């Protein structure tokens, strides 16, 4: 998830946040640049329906759309998803979703300050309150969960800072297995707000179970700046029936954050119920 421009901490908190790298208004995980990605790999990313604009090589794969990690396995998967017509702003899922329902997804927290651990507990309670056939719980102490939440420390780059990142489910129906959260002081400040951190985690876990950004067809809606489409509608961007064709200002899966507590709105609940109830 992203934050828009890196000004001061007070200003950052008023900006928008993003998801699979949640950004504080236009902040994403910035590591290596697109020049380090081969032409063939860029074409694979395009063929999956993702934008290659600002794509970066990172550990374990490629970061696209600000906070989404695509692994080599993702790039080599064949999708049977039909192409879609883009509306305005709707909830979208990836080709792969979590399977073998009902099931419990365990979440571990590795070497992070207490506020991140508390935020994971809050995030879990938010998902479990929906009464889905997919529930979450903390992994046993000393074990790694189906999703491991761990930290990285990365300051602002190019005027932006990444809050977190994650990826999408596997073709076998397993959730993406990690969420990275930025522990740099410029991401959440010296005293991170519990609700804010929980909202970023909720967004990143949304990617892990198959949700794309609600405004993927026009990131400017939540991030500001010029109109930017994260990827053509089609493979990897399947509109969820029952969600609106108009702007949805409070969705937990908007590309960029408002710097505050953003959880499920009514349309998000429709989308969650469609996939997992």
Automatic annotation (TrEMBL):
Residues 1-24 form the signal peptide. Keywords: Signal. The keyword Transferase does not apply. It holds the Pfam family Peptidase_M57. InterPro entries: MetalloPept_cat_dom_sf, Peptidase_M10/M27/M57. GO terms for molecular function: metallopeptidase activity. Coiled coil: none annotated. This is Protease. It comes from Pedobacter ginsenosidimutans. The lineage of its organism: Bacteria, Pseudomonadati, Bacteroidota, Sphingobacteriia, Sphingobacteriales.
């Amino acid at each position: 998830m992203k934050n828009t421009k890196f000004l001061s901490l007070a200003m950052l908190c008023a900006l928008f946040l993003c998801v699979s790298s949640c950004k504080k208004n236009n902040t994403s995980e910035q590591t290596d640049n697109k020049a380090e990605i081969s032409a063939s790999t860029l074409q694979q990313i395009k063929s999956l329906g993702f934008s290659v604009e600002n794509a970066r090589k990172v550990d374990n794969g490629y970061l696209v759309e600000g906070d989404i990690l695509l692994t080599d396995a993702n790039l080599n998967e064949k999708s049977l998803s039909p192409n879609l017509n883009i509306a305005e702003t709707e909830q979208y899922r990836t080709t792969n979703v979590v399977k073998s329902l009902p099931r419990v997804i365990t979440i571990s927290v590795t070497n992070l300050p207490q506020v991140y651990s508390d935020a994971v507990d809050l995030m879990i309670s938010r998902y479990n309150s929906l009464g889905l056939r997919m529930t979450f719980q903390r992994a046993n102490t000393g074990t790694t969960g189906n999703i491991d939440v761990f930290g990285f420390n990365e300051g602002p780059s190019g005027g932006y800072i990444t809050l977190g990142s994650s990826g999408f489910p596997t073709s076998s129906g397993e959730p993406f297995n990690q969420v990275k959260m930025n522990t740099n002081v410029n991401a959440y400040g010296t005293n991170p707000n519990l609700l804010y951190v929980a909202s970023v985690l909720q967004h990143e876990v949304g990617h892990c179970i198959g949700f794309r950004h609600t405004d993927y067809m026009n990131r400017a809606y939540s991030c500001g700046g010029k109109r930017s489409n994260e990827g053509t509608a089609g493979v990897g961007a399947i509109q969820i029936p029952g969600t609106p064709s108009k702007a949805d200002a409070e969705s937990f899966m908007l590309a960029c954050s408002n710097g505050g507590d953003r959880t499920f709105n009514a349309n998000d609940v429709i989308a969650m119920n469609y996939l997992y109830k």
